[in-house]
Design a protein that fits this description.
11 helices
């Protein structure tokens, strides 16, 4: 069987929860239904956008169970299980395998330590040995690997490892990674603002934070690119990027709390970003709302 299992547009879904980190089930289900109605192919849950590494294991497990149930064969679920503690990561791996997610993904355990390529190989092999579910590596520049395609050549030989979520803004490296294993590697583009670049260099699809707000635009971008209409695809990319700029500006550092605030304005009771993230003041939110209205995100 080919390793290329997942294609298309997959939002890195935010995790709606209350002040006790109890998942807001009704919101998750409504949010997923809306995304599916917009044409997305799947969801990436409990990653950085889903605040997984900052949440309790129990919250992450609850989110995964709800997401798998709500997908009901309509979309795929890729569950990020990465955690600073390997025992937590293995427990999350076992849980994800039991409930039937379509794929397991993981960042390196922590960026506080600079792991060698051999240590990273051992980490992903440990995860893979713990499950029969497909496993996807999550590559970022923070891994500190000097030659990721070389490491991926080794990782793809591990049973169950099928590919990589490539969140590195180096498309020369992305192309080299896509050529690993004779091209039989499931490579998903990470950076939202350059999805079209990733697709041009061979990515099978995209996973992104801002997909939460404008899934139909990203679906339009992907479909136009696949159809060979790069002009329309680039138009969608430009529209999406203007929203990304607004999110970064109002989030001050990253876009997660901006995405959550925007979803609140769209009528989804998603809650706030996890402490110690500061919440918006009323005046800030008013300006943000006007910006999103002008960009066509809320009406």
């Amino acid at each position: 069987m080919s390793n290329i299992r997942f294609k298309g547009i997959m939002p890195a879904l935010i995790t709606p929860y209350d002040e006790k980190q109890k998942v807001k089930e009704k919101t998750v289900r409504a949010l997923m239904d809306w995304h599916i109605s917009q044409g997305v192919d799947g969801f990436y849950i409990c990653g950085s956008t889903g605040e997984g590494p900052a949440l309790k294991k129990e919250t992450r497990m609850e989110m995964a169970e709800i997401a798998v149930d709500q997908a009901k064969g309509r979309s795929v679920i890729i569950n990020h299980i990465g955690a600073p503690n390997i025992l937590d990561a293995l427990e999350l791996t076992e849980h994800a395998s039991t409930i039937g997610v379509d794929c397991i993904a993981s960042l390196a355990p922590t960026y506080s330590f600079k792991y060698t390529e051999d240590e990273l190989f051992d980490y992903y092999k440990r995860i893979s040995d713990y499950t029969s579910t497909p496993v996807m590596v999550y590559a970022t520049a923070a891994m500190g690997v000097s030659n990721f395609p070389r490491l991926m050549e080794r990782l793809i030989q591990i049973p169950n490892i099928i590919g990589v979520k490539f969140t590195i803004r180096d498309y020369f490296e992305l192309r080299k990674a896509k050529e690993v294993n004779g091209g039989d590697i499931n490579l998903i583009n990470g950076p939202d603002e350059t999805l079209i670049c990733g697709l041009a260099m061979g990515a099978d699809g995209g996973i992104g934070t801002t997909y939460n707000l404008m899934p139909d635009w990203y679906v339009g971008l992907y479909n136009a690119f696949i159809a060979g209409d790069t002009k329309i695809a680039l138009g969608f990319q430009s529209k999406c990027n203007r929203v990304t700029e607004a999110l970064i500006r109002f989030s001050k550092n990253g876009a997660i709390k901006g995405v959550k605030a925007a979803l609140q304005l769209k009528g989804f009771d998603v809650g706030d970003a996890v402490f110690p993230s500061h919440h918006y003041l009323h005046d800030e939110l008013s300006v943000f709302k006007k910006d999103l209205e002008s960009l066509g995100i809320i009406f």
